[in-house]
């Protein structure tokens, strides 16, 4: 059985002379959360919107659950849920009316539970223009999942959400995944992608720069662990001290920061050195390479002070 | 069917809930009707012969040419159609349901005018109510088609105002609403033959008031029907979901084809 739910093969999208997406290929399997990462203008939204059937590809082929989104968008509607990056609803529509309208077109009963889960229960009779930006975002999300789609496309779902809503959304995504929903997520939030996504693709200037699980991606980068140390004295101030496995170091906000390929021996040596110098350790933090670090490395924007 | 009822019900409520639409659907036409009834009955008593059809055509122009297009344009600009598209709401529903609800609002206003004009202002009543109902439906159908088409081809809210006024003002002045077409200079009367309001007035007078109207009023009814069909057909054909997505099936100027029945009418009569 083919478990592939979303497939893009040599997908290309142009706007006049601008090549937004340059022949990318990717595959998302059933029940997977797939993160599409990249800076602004990398081609994330163009890719998502083409998969949703909102834009036509200029080359290559796309399939969602075996359906060509450009040729048979009507077949796709009942199977997918979409939260667009920019969309709207009529100003005068009430929250409950929007739910009733969209569910009627999906031929399912209005799903008020999802409104409740996303904290919109008390806003049911509010007109759309009266909602805050975060509430509008939550409503868009509620409408996207109200008909229990098999595939969910989320474009920057947590942009503009407060912390509780963000946590609730992450929980909800976990539950949807448990229920075998395939989720494709475009986001700027690396921590979110690292936490939620099974696999990610980093898009740069319309091309896939890296793809894999977050762990694989961070491992294929420089692999440097960040060790930040603060002492009460100046035992670490000598720039010539060498610790094992350290490739570079810097000083920032009273912390001496070491980048190590093997943090165990590095930390032991640092502590031993502080003790030997009769200094006092105030704080020590070890941070494994994050997806964000890898992303910055790939995009060439990491601050290597 | 549930989707249609739901959508219709929402759009109908919007026609009252939205202040601009409430104004154009009800307040403006009814206030104008009351004002014309009070003023014109004194200044020009012959106006009372055509008061009911004139005020109904005015109400249709107000709600459908001034009111109907703008929400379509702003919905496209605000990405509402994109939300509709991804949730399976078809273009046909997006265009016809607001038109249909506006038709209902206009029929309500037409009923108020018809029921009160004779009693309050001594306006002439229709003598053939079946003919009146038929012409009313054809009038709102053809003018709603124009309104929807204006909404579809306007690139933004500014051009909507331009197109709407380009139809509304001449229709008011030359369409037989204020001054009977027979009293206009020949050139202006000929220009008036290019306007839907002229045919609506002609059909009302010939088929509902049974007044001698020169050429057969059935032709006016046919012209209104043909224009309505062409307008809705072209609106659905030229519809664009997204202001960013500028690819259309054809150039918006194709919309002028909807004027073909009026041009034929102007050439024949």
Tell me what you see in this structure.
Chain A is an alpha/beta fold and 305 residues long. Chain A contains ten helices and 13 strands. Chain A has helices at residues 44-51, 73-77, 95-105, 112-117, 133-145, 163-178, 190-196, 214-219, 263-276, 291-299; strands at 4-15, 18-29, 33-37, 59-64, 80-83, 151-155, 182-187, 199-204, 207-212, 225-231, 246-252, 255-260, 281-287. In chain A, strand 8 and strand 9 form a beta hairpin. Chain A is elongated. The termini of chain A are far apart. The mean pLDDT of chain A is 88. Chain B has 269 residues and is mainly alpha-helical. Chain B has one domain. Chain B is 75% helix and 0% strand. Chain B has helices spanning 2-17, 19-43, 47-67, 69-77, 80-86, 91-121, 129-153, 157-174, 186-192, 196-208, 217-238, 260-268. Chain B is globular. Chain B starts with a helix and ends with a helix. The model of chain B has no long low-confidence stretch (mean pLDDT 92). At the A-B interface, helix 2 and helix 3 of A face helix 1 and helix 5 of B.
What brief labels describe this structure?
heterodimer; A: 305 residues; alpha/beta; Rossmann fold; Alpha-Beta Plaits; 6-stranded mixed beta sheet; 4-stranded antiparallel beta sheet; 10 helices; B: 269 residues; mainly alpha; 12 helices
Please count the beta strands of chain A (DSSP E, at least 2 residues each).
Answer: 13
Give the DSSP E fraction of chain B (strand runs of 2 or more residues): under 5%
- Tally of separate domains of chain A: 2
Alpha-carbon distance between the termini of chain A? 50 Å
Detail the topology: elements first, then pairings:
The complex is a heterodimer of chains A (305) and B (269).
Chain A (H helix, E strand, L loop, with lengths): L3 E12 L2 E12 L3 E5 L6 H8 L7 E6 L8 H5 L2 E4 L11 H11 L6 H6 L15 H13 L5 E5 L7 H16 L3 E6 L2 H7 L2 E6 L2 E6 L1 H6 L5 E7 L14 E7 L2 E6 L2 H14 L4 E7 L3 H9 L6
Parallel strand pairs in A: 3-7, 3-8, 5-6, 6-7
Antiparallel strand pairs in A: 1-2, 1-4, 8-9, 10-12, 10-13, 11-12
Chain B lengths: L1 H16 L1 H25 L3 H21 L1 H9 L2 H7 L4 H31 L7 H25 L3 H18 L11 H7 L3 H13 L8 H22 L21 H9 L1
């Amino acid at each position: 059985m083919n478990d592939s739910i979303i497939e893009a093969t040599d997908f290309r999208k142009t706007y006049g002379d601008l090549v937004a997406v340059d022949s990318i290929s990717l595959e998302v399997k059933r029940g997977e959360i797939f993160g599409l990462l990249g800076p602004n203008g990398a081609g994330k939204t163009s890719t998502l919107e083409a998969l949703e059937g909102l834009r036509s590809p200029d080359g290559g082929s796309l399939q969602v659950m075996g359906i060509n989104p450009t040729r048979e968008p009507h077949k796709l509607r009942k199977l997918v849920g979409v939260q667009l990056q920019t969309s709207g609803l009529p100003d005068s529509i009430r929250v409950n009316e929007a739910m009733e309208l969209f569910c009627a077109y999906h031929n399912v009963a209005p799903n008020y539970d999802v409104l409740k889960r996303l904290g919109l229960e008390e806003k049911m009779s509010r007109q759309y223009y009266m909602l805050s930006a975060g509430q509008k975002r939550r409503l868009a999300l509620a409408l996207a999942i109200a008909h229990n789609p098999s595939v969910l496309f989320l474009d920057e779902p947590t942009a503009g959400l407060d912390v509780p809503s963000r946590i609730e959304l992450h929980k909800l995504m976990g539950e949807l995944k448990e229920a075998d929903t395939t989720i494709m997520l475009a986001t700027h939030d690396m921590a979110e992608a690292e936490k939620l996504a099974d696999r990610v693709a980093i898009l740069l200037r319309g091309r896939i720069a890296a793809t894999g699980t977050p762990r694989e991606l961070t491992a294929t980068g420089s692999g440097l662990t960040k060790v930040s140390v603060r002492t009460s004295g100046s035992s670490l101030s000598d720039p010539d001290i060498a610790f094992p496995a350290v490739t570079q170091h810097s000083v920032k906000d009273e912390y001496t920061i070491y980048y190590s390929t093997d943090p165990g021996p590095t930390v032991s040596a640092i502590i031993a050195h502080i003790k030997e110098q009769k200094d006092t350790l105030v704080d020590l933090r070890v941070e494994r390479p994050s997806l964000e670090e890898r992303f910055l490395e790939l995009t060439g924007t990491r601050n290597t002070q | 069917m549930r989707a249609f009822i739901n959508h219709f019900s929402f759009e109908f409520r919007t026609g009252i809930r939205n202040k601009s639409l409430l104004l154009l659907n009800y307040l403006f036409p009814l206030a104008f009707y009351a004002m014309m009834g009070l003023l014109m009955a004194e200044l020009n008593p012959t106006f009372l012969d055509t008061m009911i059809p004139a005020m109904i055509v005015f109400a249709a122009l107000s709600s459908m040419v001034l009111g109907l297009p703008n929400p379509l344009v702003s919905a496209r600009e605000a990405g509402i159609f994109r939300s509709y598209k991804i949730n399976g709401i078809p273009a046909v529903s997006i265009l016809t349901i607001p038109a249909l609800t506006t038709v209902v609002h206009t029929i309500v206003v037409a009923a108020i005018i018809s029921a009160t004009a004779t009693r309050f202002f001594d306006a002439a009543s229709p003598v053939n109510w079946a003919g009146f109902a038929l012409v009313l439906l054809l009038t709102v159908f053809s003018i709603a088609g124009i309104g929807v088409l204006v909404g579809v081809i306007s690139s933004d809210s500014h051009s909507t105002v331009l197109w709407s006024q380009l139809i509304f003002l001449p229709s008011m002045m030359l369409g037989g609403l204020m001054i009977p077409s027979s009293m206009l200079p020949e050139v202006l009367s000929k220009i008036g033959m290019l306007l839907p309001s002229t045919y609506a007035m002609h059909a009302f007078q010939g088929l509902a008031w049974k007044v001698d109207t020169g050429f057969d009023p059935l032709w006016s009814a046919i012209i209104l029907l043909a224009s309505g069909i062409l307008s809705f057909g072209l609106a659905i054909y030229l519809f664009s979901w997204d202001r960013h997505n500028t690819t259309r099936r054809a150039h918006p100027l194709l919309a002028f084809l909807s004027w073909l029945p009026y041009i034929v009418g102007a050439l024949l009569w």
